[in-house]
Specification:
Elements (H helix, E strand, L loop, with lengths): L2 H27 L7 H6 L5 H16 L5 E5 L5 H8 L6 E6 L2 H10 L6 E5 L14 E7 L10 H10 L1 E12 L12 E3 L6 E3 L4 H9 L3 E9 L2 H4 L5 H11 L4 H8 L9 E7 L24
Parallel strand pairs: 1-2, 1-4, 2-3, 4-5
Antiparallel strand pairs: 5-9, 6-7, 8-9
Length: 298
Amino acid sequence: MPPLCRLLTNYQKIIKNLEIKLKIIMAKVYNTTDLRPDQAFERHVFHRDQFAHYLRWTHILKETKIDESIVDFGCGAANLLEVLYRNKFKRKEYIGIDIRKKTIQEAAEKYANVPWAHFYVADLVKNYMDFSQFNADRVCAFEVLEHVGKQNAHKFLENFKACGNNNATYYLSTPNYDPSVGAAGNHTYDSGDGRGVDVQEFDHWELEGILKCHFDIVKKFGTFASAKDYKPLMNDWQQKMFDALKEYYDSNLIANIMAPMFPDASRNTLWVLKRKPGDVKVAPKATEQPSLFDDDLM
């Protein structure tokens, strides 16, 4: 083999090894799996986790107004946008942000005909992007916190809050860790905090304490719950409701229907948040927005 060809071959091997090492390092810090309920439903797989996703999105569909802007913080495949778009409820602007460049590219291509949708590649726990530029009315982070590593929770929430204006409403959902049940496999990984492979979910009260450091908690809803956890908490009318529903619905749907009434006993909670009194955001400077695939955002 000519010297130049050997040199190029060795160079390609070095680049390939670096790419593999980079993927390993990324896997230790973040878990980038993405649950796709749309694909599960196409296969006729119906589970409470999948229903919970759709019900979170429809909650935002119900709560928001046409003239409002929304940031989808950790948007993944932009399923929230899909729900907004398919229900013909145009917003002022939808902004999807995610660390995965390929995922953002695919979403931008899929929704290229939606002029009010914009996408950005950014690390949600770094300062590479000025998140305050978006100044949105609603900011959502659905099933994201458990994927960034527990040690990054405060930075995640700082950047999450920065995306909204002073009167913004924030929506965050994440599992409530229960050691008797365990955590999902993709929520147990090495986040690089020195604990090794460990659970990256928070229990309900641990997370509530962290959220109170950054926000006022306006409301919280369970998104799915096991009957054994909330049945001891039911009053008379809730018991009658449960018994009536059980005659028709299977346990997966009942898990979603009953959960909003028992957020503290649910396997997953949707937190509705506001800025604390006196936590006033300085108006963002008029700067040029970074391009979709700006290398500085990675």
